[in-house]
Design goal:
There is one protein chain. This protein is mainly α and 422 residues long. It contains 16 helices and 2 strands. It has a two-stranded antiparallel sheet. The protein is globular, with a radius of gyration of 24 Å.
């Protein structure tokens, strides 16, 4: 007897939802290769050799690390269903505790204490949001304000009386963490980069930037990206944690202790943010200064959103911000002026792609934006200093705007959960 289903006249075909394919590794590598080629073309046209220099890449990496660590903290929390706006405050705690321990007992003691300081902020956020059910945004903002007040109070009777300190707003100098340089390869890449050959010198600049004067803490931070991916997507612990962010009621019905996983995720989140703060204090400046986080906790959240709540995408977002910020610090207006031409090419390619896909409105908007930037580039020789300072933040907003259509946050992120509520 046949069991095949038949379609009656009353059955209406259901419209198929468009399937958004994930970027495979070969496609990602192709995009990266295309970006390097485009940067090389822009360098040749503009003469801005510094945009792919060893120093530029090294500086971009250093500026991207604290943003990436804050973003990883946000990723752990939101994958468990807790929105962590308090990353900025946890970074502030990391800078203070890292510097306080670092100048007394050495930089690695500062790393440990900085992580614990950030984790303490994460624990407070977990108690407020998970146990008492307070709105996640309200709790995060409160922690940011509290962290500023607490560290300022502690500084008044700690750093002010410390030997070598000039004021309560900064700590004494911290001993640097060991830097590593790959012998032979570093010098070879610097030599090739100095030749200014098409593509070859640019590739040498990128390679040289990651093998020259690399802090051991930078290596640790870079390894945390694949480690996070492995834990969250390749272990049973990660599966249970992510289930708490997608459907905590269903997770509870399968025996998952949702409260425990949320607490662990938010504490780990604070630890990552604290490590980002330690990096600012011990690697970027070798000193604690009040306000040195510079809103990087919020920018880390933006990088996490750009990365679609995935470690690899988050790293790309942090790298983008670090690169534009490094352009700002090195030669300022000249480098950012060259970046305008890079954006012209990128927007033109995006417009052509949208027109190919028959999305004419998006294609026309992209083409118009490319034309305006080309006019701006042609009529000027250097970008105003105000725009140079704002360039990293503008880049962040543009990236978020362009990537908004493909984003999908964990379904239960920010929603209150009560045990047995299902």
């Amino acid at each position: 007897m046949s069991t095949a289903t038949t379609t009656t006249a009353t059955d209406k075909p259901q419209p198929r939802k468009p399937v958004r394919q994930k970027l495979s590794l070969p496609v990602v590598l192709l995009i990266v290769a295309g970006a390097v080629v485009l940067a090389s073309v822009v360098r040749l046209i503009t003469g801005a050799d510094d945009i792919t220099s060893v120093g530029q890449v090294s500086g971009a990496l250093e500026l991207a690390i604290p943003i990436g660590l804050a973003g990883l903290g946000g990723l752990w929390a939101e994958r468990a269903g807790v929105v962590n706006i308090g990353l900025e405050g946890m970074m502030i705690l990391g800078t203070w505790f890292g510097a306080w321990a670092g100048y007394q007992w050495g930089p690695w003691a500062g790393v440990v204490l900085g992580i614990l300081g950030g984790a303490l902020g994460g624990l407070l956020h977990a108690v407020i949001t998970v146990t008492f059910g307070v709105n996640h945004i309200v709790s995060g903002v409160a922690i940011n304000i509290l962290a500023v007040g607490v560290t300022r109070y502690l500084s008044n009777f700690t750093f002010l009386e410390a030997e070598g300190s000039k004021s309560a707003r900064q700590s004494p100098t911290i001993d640097p963490i060991t830097d590593i340089t790959v012998p032979g390869l570093s010098d070879a890449m610097k030599t090739l980069n100095g030749k200014h050959w098409f593509l070859v010198s640019d590739l040498a600049g990128f390679v040289g930037g990651v093998v020259t004067n690399l802090s051991l803490l930078t290596v640790v931070a870079l390894l945390l990206v694949p480690f996070t991916w492995w834990v969250l997507w390749r272990t049973s612990f990660g599966l249970r944690l992510r289930s708490c962010g997608e459907n905590p009621v269903a997770a509870e019905s399968l025996g998952v202790n949702v409260y425990r996983y949320k607490y662990l995720a938010v504490i780990i989140s604070g630890g990552f943010a604290g490590l980002g703060g330690v990096f600012l204090a011990e690697v970027a400046s070798n000193i604690y200064q009040e306000g040195q986080t510079g809103n990087r906790g919020y920018i880390g959240l933006a990088a996490m959103i750009f990365g679609n709540w995935m470690p690899g995408g988050l790293a790309m977002g942090a790298g983008l911000f670090g690169y534009t910020d490094s352009l700002n610090l090195r030669s300022g207006g000249t480098n950012v002026h060259a970046l305008l031409l890079f954006l012209v090419f990128v927007l033109a390619l995006v417009a052509l792609w949208q027109l190919y896909r028959k999305k004419y409105l998006a294609g026309v908007i992209g083409a118009a934006a490319a034309a305006l930037l080309l006019v701006w580039y042609s009529l000027t020789e250097e970008v105003p200093s105000q725009f140079v300072t704002a360039a990293p933040y503008i880049a962040t907003l543009l990236v978020l705007a362009l990537s908004a259509q493909r984003l999908r946050a964990p379904k239960a992120a920010g929603q209150p959960y009560y045990k047995g509520g299902g």
